[in-house]
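Pasting as-is:
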Amino acid sequence: MSTSPSPFPVLWLSGPPGVGKSTAGWALYRRLAAGGTPVGYVDIDQLGINYPEPPGDPGRHLLKTGNLAALAANHRAHGARCLVVSGVVDPVAGVDRGRLPGVDLTLCALTAGREELSRRYRGRGTGPEHLARVLAEAECESLGTAAAGPPDVRVDTDGLAPAEVVERVLAHWCPPTAAPAPPPEEEAVGERERSDARVAVLLLCGAEAVGKSTVGWEVGQRLQRAGRPTAFVDLGQVGFLTPAPVDDPGGHRLRAANLAALLDRYAALGTRRLVAVGPVPDAATADLYRRALPGAALAVCRLDADPGTLLDRVRRRGAGQAPPLAGDRLR
């Protein structure tokens, strides 16, 4: 007699802009991995880069939550015991937990006082002309989250280093000590909204720091400005899992599964073009992505640059002259 799989633990760190959600989330992910817990990580903003905005879903919060359900199922199927998520939630409605079937969600709200947020923004280089605006947004976020209902956990981050924030979070949330029961094979990729529409997918690959993300983002922006519904996926940002499966050390099976799930959901909304960026080291890996996207028109484009240009770009990344992304080892 079959039994239903146990819920998959997901910890979502939320809070106002600048409170340190991504920093704490990444630190927690690394802490759990170092302790031997197979764990995944995702920044929720990476799950909603699809334009135009879906009708009736301002901020794409419902879209992101549905996409999270699909990625949580894929991470679980690839060996993760839990998933750490960072990012804002809908300030009015909160998280629609009904869109997360099979998930044991713990919503942890990080907080900080106005003076602390101001200090952190100034550390980011935010100019005084923008500081008042972002603090007002933080106030609205705090009030909105309260209106949507209390979080499961609340952690005050005033004066705390990221490692100290992690300690406080772990005082309220315990990662699983045993692997949750795996889901049935047919449910391994989660709820997927399939579309018969053929989507054109451009996969930009190449050496680290060659400019995949910069070029891919600009391609997506130009398509959007031309009025063409377009999505963007950074494969590295949807493939964090430590340790990697022994039969997939590069993590490309998980990335391909997550790309396929996102493509299906975006296509159901009318998206007909998707730009993906990430490493594709050889022809076998390119074939893996082709097999994962059987209904898409996939074009793989490798970017190249001479060693001097790559060295200059590596130095620029190391100096912080690029958008801060989780797992960027060049920073």
